[in-house]
Amino acid sequence: MAAEIPVGVGLARLVAWSPDDGRVAGLVRQVCARTLSLPAAPCEVAVDEPESEAERAVAEFAEQFSADVSQISAEQRSGLLEQLGDSAFGAVVSIFIADFVPRVRAGLEALGIGSEYLGWARGPIRWNHAATEGPGVLFNDFLPAVARMRALDPVTSELVRLRGAAAHNCRLCKSLREGTALDAGGSDTLYDDVERFETSILLDDCAKAALRYTDALIWTPAHLAVDVAAEVRSRFSEAEAIELTFDIMRNASNKIAVSLGADEPRVEQGTERYLIGADGQTVFG
Q1: How many CB atoms lie within 10 A of CB 270?
Q2: Does residue 142 contact residue 280 with C-beta atoms inside 8 Å?
Q3: What is the predicted pLDDT for the residue at 122?
Q4: What are the backbone angles phi and psi of residue 272, rounded to the nearest 5°?
Q5: Are residues 34 and 139 both part of a single domain?
Q6: What is the pLDDT of residue 1?
Q7: What percent of the chain has pLDDT above 70?
Q8: pLDDT digits (tens, 9 = 90+) for 161-217
Q9: Which domain holds residue 135?
Q10: How far is CA 123 from the centre of its chain?
């Protein structure tokens, strides 16, 4: 069994992934940053504008991915696949990194915590050009490492997951319910209020603070209100607030499936229960 890596190490390895000649990673990091109005994740090769039909397809896809992944059109999807073929999936992983690393940085900086996770923003980076490295690090190392974090209570984690699922319109995520959260007091009655959480009488102030922060990182990360960040810091410990930030990124990996039209629900009706294993991997049945 491979050694489990910490969240910070996984994040740094994602930032350092610059496959092939680095042009696609450099292009999407600039496109996503402009879309989000945030500083770009570091890039080995700064590519401000596309120079080929393939790069134009990637840039258009990346812009919509960052702005609202649920609105990626069939034409944008087919255009990406037609131009990139088998390398399309790796490009979409690059886009996810370009899209969400700046959001995490903005969130942690607004909260005034987690500087140990942002070392890549301050020092030299040893770039990794292996074409398969990014997806492996993301799905086998980084996302499970986030799932292994246990500071935040499971019901809050599930509320945040469902808010992200609705924002990105991930059919798969909306069809699932995490078992530990259900055992800790979660229910569909409670979860139904996520859609209208501001007026909910079932969700407490901590849950509402977490959901406001979730919305801010998803929709307005460049304008993260001071009072939103301050409320999170006042209601959650430092470890909980860091986990909350990374939970939002982990949940947002659903954007990869949504963007490629691969987010089919696991059940046709109702929902399916699942668990997060000790290794951070999802366990069904």
Answers
A1: 9
A2: no
A3: 87
A4: -115, 140
A5: yes
A6: 41
A7: 99
A8: 999 999 999 999 999 999 999 999 999 999 999 999 999 999 999 999 999 999 999
A9: 7-147
A10: 24
How does DSSP classify residue 273?
Answer: E
Question: Which residues partner with 284 through β-bridges?
Answer: 274
Q: What is the DSSP letter of 150?
A: -
Token pair in block for residue 245: 């930030």
In the listed set 125, 147, 169, which residue is the last one of a domain according to the structure? 147
The tokens for 227 are: 């009072």
Q: Dump pLDDT digits (tens) for 79-124.
A: 999 999 999 999 999 999 999 999 999 999 999 999 999 999 888 9
The verdict on 103 and 34 lying in the same domain is: yes
Residue with tokens 């294993």: 277
Residue whose pair of structure tokens reads 């691969």 in the numeric block: 262
Give the C-alpha separation, 235 to 231, whole Å: 6
Q: How many domains does the chain have?
A: 2
Structure token digits, residue 269? 């009706």
